[in-house]
Amino acid sequence: MLSANVPCVSGKHCLAITFSSDITLGATIPQVRFPQSFVLELLLTALLMFVILGVSTGARRKGITAG
Prior knowledge:
Strand content: under 5%
Number of domains: 1
Shape: flat
Number of strands: 0
Radius of gyration: 20 Å
């Protein structure tokens, strides 16, 4: 547990020191209204699930193998 958390925390602090002047760096801030962002997120999620299920269930597959 410690071997996973130490690099994570040290990397976070290195990035915080390097990019301390930009407080919104890496933040997801939509530039459009909420309904438009929500519909776009819904469509992209549906497309991703379609691709995942299409890849995991093909002619050579016997049932859903994803997950």
